[in-house]
Amino acid sequence: VAGPGMPRVGDGIILINDVGEVEFATPNATNALHRLGVYASTEGKTFTEAGLRLRVVERCLEYGIPAMEEVDRSSDVAILFHCVPLFDRGLVSGVVVLLRDVSDLRQLNRLVLNKEAAVREVHHRVKNNLQTISSLLRLQARRSDEIETVVALQEAERRVRSIAVVHEVLSREPGEEVVFDEIVRSIVLLVEDTVLALHPVEIVVNGELGTLPTDLATPLALALTELLTNAVEHAFIDFGGPDNEHVGVVTLDLSLEGDHAIAEIRDNGRGLEDDFMLDVATSLGLSIVRDLVRSQLHGTIEMSNMSYADGGGTLIRVVVPTEVAN
Fold first, then answer.
1. How confident is the model at residue 317, as a pLDDT?
2. In degrees rounded to 5, what are phi and psi of residue 192?
3. Cα 14 to Cα 35, 92, 104, distances in angstroms
């Protein structure tokens, strides 16, 4: 595709002499000038005399270098002037001006910008609505005296906030894809902010997943939030001796292998129970993760104990295709 400065069939052509007067104009050029409100004949006149001020022609004559300028007369009209100097024995003897009507292109650009602004506003409003729901759940939890009810409401509030994180990123950069690494940073802060652990726990993130489709980002963000929260809250219970001086470390390793995104969550905690089975997990969080990964993301999830030689604890491996199936 020709660049903005390359001649095209539909371009108008105007020949200007060394004093800036129009010597010749093609019909396409005349039509372009008409769209700018210049209806009188321009031959023998400068653009300024014809009522059109173009600094670009003066610069081209003065400095002898090509230059471009776009002239707008309304939101519907835009004409691009591309000036090329002519030389005679090293001196500028005139200018050839190519006129291109770029009105349709500018209108299309405005439509795209308006669409992006609308999409950004939608994500912003969704994020605000989710944050409102989150606040209501948090307030309701504070008013309850039942421990189980408080925990359930807090978990629901955290899940809503994890979805809001994705819309927060999309409200800044709307589109079909999202930089997932920004979401991961927000998820880690969310888990650290909402989880009340009875022991010191550090979350370490290695690697990155880059840019992912938005249809994949939301469920994956929710799944990772649940897994990190589960690891921080439960991996170190009754682990580390009577003084509980064991420092817990939860590591999130992210990588791309071919057309699959891989997330591995490791902890150095007490490991899984001997009779643990993911398919019959009674935890709501693990049930949500299992259904998200298998049904919505069409991926796989495995949970296993690490050997003592590898530091012990639990390893969770999630593998999902980077293109979500319809």
1. 94
2. -65, -30
3. 15, 16, 22
